[in-house]
Amino acid sequence: MKRWETGFTLIETLVAMSVFAIVSLAVTSLMVKDTQMISENAQASRAIAFAQEALENLREVSVVSLTNGSWPSLVSGGTTFNVSWTATTDSPTTGMTAVVVMVNWQHKGNPRTYALQSIFTNLSQ
Question: Where are the alpha helices (DSSP H) in the chain?
Fold first, then answer.
């Protein structure tokens, strides 16, 4: 009758370590990509907030005096955002003004843009 020794052989240990290393590399790769995506989404969220803030500020301006403009560059989280808007009077129809707010920034050297569009009208005509 043979007596079996308890424990793992060297081969079993090496195979287990190799499998663990492969799984760890895959998980690490996913974590790096997730971190990059979180960073990009945070910048996009800031851009959306700036665009909405600009649009809300423009709502306080009389429709007939709306003109094209921009804000000074805004820095948030180490990223520089440029906010500008264009106002097109009598668009889409007479008495209305189409406003497009654009926010531009760079993400890892690649230009990004967020645009927010609204139509203003003068209700007291």
Answer: 10-58
The per-residue pLDDT for range 25-67, each reduced to its tens digit, is 999 999 999 998 999 999 999 999 999 999 999 999 888 888 9
Helix (H) or strand (E) holding 106: strand 96-107
Q: What is the pLDDT of residues 81-123, one digit of tens each?
A: 999 999 999 888 888 899 999 999 999 899 999 999 999 987 7
Residue identified by tokens 């920034």 is 105
Element of type H or E holding 82: strand 79-89
Query: What is the rounded distance in angstroms from the CA atom of residue 100 to the CA atom of residue 119?
Result: 9
For tokens 């560059």, name the residue: 73
Inter-residue contact 120 to 96 (CB < 8 Å): yes
Find, among 60, 79, 70, the residue nearest to 102 by Cα.
Answer: 70
Q: Classify residue 61 by its DSSP letter.
A: S
Class of 10-121 per CATH? alpha beta
CA-nearest of 120, 79, 119 to 103 is 79
